[in-house]
């Protein structure tokens, strides 16, 4: 049994597979460098799969490789060399908290009465159109598919020219849903302007209440957008607020639809 893992019982050690024992032996022989390795790098160096690493960590009482490394660092005499790693770990925690804040704050911002009104509009519509551009298209596409599964006449469009054209042809008993994070997308604003001029009902899912699209829309469901982005050079901010809103809206739609059948 490797020296570092002497606290393992003989029975537990014997229950390990050959590859798991080999991994523990490798870790024991390179114990000083382990806290600075990623699970992928350890996999390469020890010539075992990442699945073997995760499985072995759980068998010796850890949730995963990261928790094992943290336990190692806690027992190291000289922790100064791992300060950079701790900083990375802290930044990852901040990333988790950022996403948690977007979810929890978005839920807090949602008005149940407005959701109910939006559902009623969607249910009474002869047809639903969903317009979106960029990364919001994935959310809009999912919404369209789920509505179709619920036997609703719905279609999604992302082409700017088609959006402009269709917005001039939509009938009075039809409803348009816009999915836009910042609410400034030119073709969506133009389409919503066309619809407002013809008194067509519109629902917007956004994270920017002070936007042209929000101002033009009949109903606006607003989510919380974190001010921090890990991709500052590009317009690829998190669509998590929109995902939360769309999921709640569709879940509520399904519930209401079931209750009237």
Instruction: Quickly give the CATH architecture of the largest domain.
Output: 3-Layer(aba) Sandwich
Instruction: Write the CATH homologous superfamily of the largest domain.
Output: Glucose-6-phosphate isomerase like protein, domain 1
Number of strands: 5
Widest β-sheet, arrangement of strands: 2-1-3-4-5
Average pLDDT, to the nearest integer?
86
- Main sheet properties: 5 strands, parallel
Number of helices: 12
Question: What is the name of the CATH topology of the largest domain?
Answer: Rossmann fold
First-residue to last-residue Cα separation: 65 Å
Oligomeric composition of the shown chains: single chain
Question: How many domains would you count in the coordinates?
Answer: 2
Query: What value does the Rg take, in angstroms?
Result: 26 Å
User: Helical amount among residues, as a percent range?
Assistant: 55-70%
The unreliable regions are none
Order of helices and strands: HHHHHHHEHEHEHEHEH
What is the CATH C-level name of the largest domain? Alpha Beta
Beta percentage is: 5-15%
Overall spatial form: elongated
What is the structural class? alpha/beta
């Amino acid at each position: 049994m490797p020296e570092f893992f002497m606290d393992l019982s003989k029975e537990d050690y014997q229950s390990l597979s050959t590859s798991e024992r080999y991994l523990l032996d490798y870790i024991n022989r390179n114990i000083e460098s382990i806290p600075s390795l990623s699970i992928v790098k350890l996999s390469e160096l020890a010539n075992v799969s990442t699945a073997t690493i995760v499985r072995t960590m759980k068998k010796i009482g850890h949730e995963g490789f990261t928790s094992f490394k943290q336990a190692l660092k806690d027992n190291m005499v000289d922790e100064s060399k791992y300060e950079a790693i701790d900083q990375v770990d802290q930044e990852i925690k901040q990333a988790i908290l950022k996403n948690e804040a977007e979810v929890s704050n978005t839920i807090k911002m949602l008005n149940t009465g407005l959701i109910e009104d939006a559902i009623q509009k969607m249910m009474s519509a002869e047809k639903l159109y969903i317009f979106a551009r960029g990364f919001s298209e994935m959310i809009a596409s999912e919404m369209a598919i789920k509505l179709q599964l619920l036997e609703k006449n719905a279609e999604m469009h992302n082409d700017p020219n088609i959006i402009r054209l269709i917005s001039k042809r939509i009938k009075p008993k039809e409803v348009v849903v816009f999915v836009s994070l910042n609410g400034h997308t030119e073709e969506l604003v133009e389409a919503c302007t066309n619809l407002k001029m013809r008194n067509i009902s519109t629902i917007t899912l956004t994270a920017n209440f002070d936007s042209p699209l929000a101002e033009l829309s009949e109903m606006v469901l607003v989510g919380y957008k974190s001010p921090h982005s890990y991709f500052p050079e590009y317009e690829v901010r998190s669509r998590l607020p929109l995902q939360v809103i769309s999921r709640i809206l569709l879940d509520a739609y399904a519930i209401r639809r079931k209750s009237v059948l």
